[in-house]
């Protein structure tokens, strides 16, 4: 299964995939700084959220949203990958769903914490999402959450996720919403102060195009509205069925007020 082919600061914001990357940041400097941050999170933290660079309330909201979507959509049995697994929050959930799971992360301290506190049924492996060491068409599903904001672009990661999934398999990926009004305001303030972006925003149009151009079909968008941790007591409002209906059927609402979004796509059966 494993191929020999050679060939997150706390929960906040980053620049849209539609926009050119900040010229002050090379791929090496931006992504290397994030790798160092993630290693620091793992060394200095014990709880899942802090290890992954999220607030506790933010990670819980993300997991609840994913579980809600998962229960609505039939999933494939077999082998699943959790790319950018962090402390293994989502890996543990997949194991509960009777999936075989490999958790990948490029931070060795993070994997050590995941192995120490996580389920022994997960195989933990060190790897970079830009070159997943798994053969083409070899897994039944893959999730990649909390990763794209720490990358210079999303092209390679989407291509890699689509590559490793076999026909009929599923790809789940999330990103920070670049068109969310608070994020746009943050980007404007940083631009005005001459400060580079510390995270990268994305456009949902961009991710959809990438998934489709890499051969995925039935690509579906799910908005992920999340209140800042200081206002977490209001989070239940946006998780009600009524508000979820509004976010689903009034696209502009999700575009302007959702902190993040999730996409799910499938490799077509040949």
From TrEMBL:
Annotated Basic and acidic residues bias: 1-12
GO molecular-function terms, A-Z: S-adenosylmethionine-dependent methyltransferase activity
Transmembrane segments: 243-263
InterPro entries for this protein: Diverse_substrate_MTase (IPR051052), Methyltransf_11 (IPR013216), SAM-dependent_MTases_sf (IPR029063)
Region of interest: Disordered: 1-28
Domain of life: Bacteria
GO biological process, one term: methylation
SUPFAM superfamilies reported for this sequence: S-adenosyl-L-methionine-dependent methyltransferases
The keyword Cytoplasm belongs to this UniProt entry's keyword annotation: no
Keywords: Membrane, Methyltransferase, Transferase, Transmembrane, Transmembrane helix
The UniProt record lists the keyword Transmembrane: yes
Domain Methyltransferase type: 81-173
PANTHER family with a match to the protein in the record: METHYLTRANSF_11 DOMAIN-CONTAINING PROTEIN, METHYLTRANSFERASE TYPE 11 DOMAIN-CONTAINING PROTEIN
Family of this protein: Belongs to the methyltransferase superfamily.
Name assigned to this protein: Methyltransferase domain-containing protein
């Amino acid at each position: 299964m494993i191929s020999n082919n050679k060939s997150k600061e706390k929960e906040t914001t980053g620049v849209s995939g539609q926009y050119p990357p900040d010229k002050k940041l090379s791929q090496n400097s931006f992504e290397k700084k994030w790798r160092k941050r993630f290693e620091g999170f793992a060394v200095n933290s014990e709880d899942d959220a802090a290890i992954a660079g999220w607030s506790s309330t933010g990670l819980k909201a993300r997991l609840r949203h994913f579980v809600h979507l998962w229960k609505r959509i039939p999933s494939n049995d077999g082998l699943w990958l959790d790319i950018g697994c962090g402390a293994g929050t989502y890996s543990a959930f997949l194991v509960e769903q009777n999936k075989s799971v490999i958790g990948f992360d490029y931070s060795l301290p993070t994997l050590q914490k995941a192995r120490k506190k996580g389920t022994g049924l997960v195989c933990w492996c060190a790897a970079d999402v830009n070159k997943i060491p798994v053969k083409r068409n070899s897994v039944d599903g893959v999730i990649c959450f909390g990763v794209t904001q720490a990358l210079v672009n999303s092209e390679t990661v989407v291509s890699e996720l689509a590559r490793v999934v076999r026909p009929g398999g599923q790809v789940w990926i999330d990103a920070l919403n670049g068109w969310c009004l608070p994020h746009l305001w943050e980007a404007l303030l940083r631009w005005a102060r001459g400060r580079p972006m510390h995270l990268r925003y994305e456009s949902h149009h961009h991710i959809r195009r990438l998934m489709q151009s890499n051969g995925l079909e039935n690509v579906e968008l799910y908005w992920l509205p999340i209140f800042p941790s200081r206002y977490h007591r209001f989070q239940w409002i946006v998780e009600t069925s009524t508000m979820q209906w509004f976010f689903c059927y009034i696209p502009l609402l999700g575009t302007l007020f959702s902190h993040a979004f999730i996409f799910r796509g499938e490799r077509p059966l040949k």
